[in-house]
User: Fold this.
Amino acid sequence: MKYKNIKAIVILFAGLFLTVSCSEEFLNPDPNGLALEDTYYSNETEAFAGVTAVYDVLGWENLLGRIVGLNSASDDFFAGGGNSSDITELQLWDNYTLNPTNSPSGEYWKKGFSGVFRANILLTKLPDVPMDENTKARFTAETKALRAYFYFDLVRFFKNIPLITTPVSTEDYYKIPQVAPEEVYAQIEADLNAAIPNLPITVPAATEGGRLTQGAAKALLGKVYLFQNKYTEAAAQFAEVNGTPGATSQYGYKLLDNFADLWEVENRFHSESILEIVHSKLSNGSWDNVAGSEGNIMNQMIGPRGYTTKTPDAPDYVSGYGFNPLSADLYNAYSATDLRRSATVANLTQLVADGKATYEPGYKDTGYFLEKFVGRISNRYPTGTAELNWSQDTYEIRLADTYLMEAEAIVKGGGNTARAQALLDAVRLRAGLTSIPATDENIFNERRLELAGEGQRWFDLVRTGRAAAVLAPFGFVPGKHEILPIPQLELNNTLLKQNPNY
Assistant:
């Protein structure tokens, strides 16, 4: 895998800025060309294009997709694929032999700082754009919240990173040092707190679905607090987002009645979705520019290899690449009465045993695949490179997630345990399960089952200090593998220093 390093991105953004327009939804950008950054942003239309360009980075996907990578690194999934060298970077994170020149680091670093640099440019330009002041305040708020999102990912993945809040020249980049992670977190908090008052409470899903709201920014802020063990502050933010457990909150959030409905491709921007990463089937992505596609390639990647139906009632799964097979341990963690199991796990072993389908077992095959995101023929779009143009959105934050994060923050922070119990009970009730005590361990285990395959498990293991024990059988080394290595290309001729033990 090859990637542009940050120094190359700085050069790109010094003279050019990608302009985008909107199609069916706000986040289905269609490139119109390149404009000189120095002479751009002369009106509201161009400022809006700049905001869209920052949002655009959220949906960047390629074969090292964020969720597939995080799943591979967790205990609940394997990298999988065709063999032990299929997308080597994923295999190396799976078995914890990754290094500065061969890991997913380059892609995640590039994506995060691309978002930061786009945001920095726009925040510099917006004050001078002649436009409605209320609209300008909203654009500024969205951009600050997005910068906070990108920095939150970067500091969690790499910990020791540079903090850049203004556009930088090519020459200056080489002189920028890393800062303490506490400084990055302080900037994230500042950006989100500044953004929240000027974000809308709700947005019309048909025309602005995917744009940030007050509730989304507060949920993200609560998560930022939780990762710093600021439990009282986290619980307060989540309480505003969640409202009364099981009821509709002040921001219109409410758990869907049916867990399986979360994974219906056309069910977008619903009451449980707080921060949704948008994908499009209309981008016509191609293998010449995988990262340029707005589609969700994960649907293709995790499908069982060589899948063939034998009976009419067999699921119409796409024949995929076999990545992220589930562990048997995760499958067995679901009780037979847990309604989430069938909506989470595609049980190919059972389909084969029943004579309904066949498939070709891939690397580290378990017979279990991720039902939540496996592509289906009925959802496949025939235009362009179909493998790249899946349109299923993914959830960065959804309401069941914030319920459980608030419950955790309450328990760890010594808050209202009755409320923590109600939050946990609401999640379990939807799953068809009875109440269990709202202890830290029970809440942690509930997150595993509720959010399986959504890219949350690895972060949960690391931030709660459980990674060393849980991931030890997979090669995890404490004091090293809680973060990724800084990409080697970023170290060359700069002030950046490699993370410990890499």
In short: The radius of gyration is 22 Å. Residues 6-199+465-491 form a domain with the Serine Threonine Protein Phosphatase 5, Tetratricopeptide repeat fold (CATH 1.25.40.890). Confidence is low (pLDDT under 50) at residues 1-35.
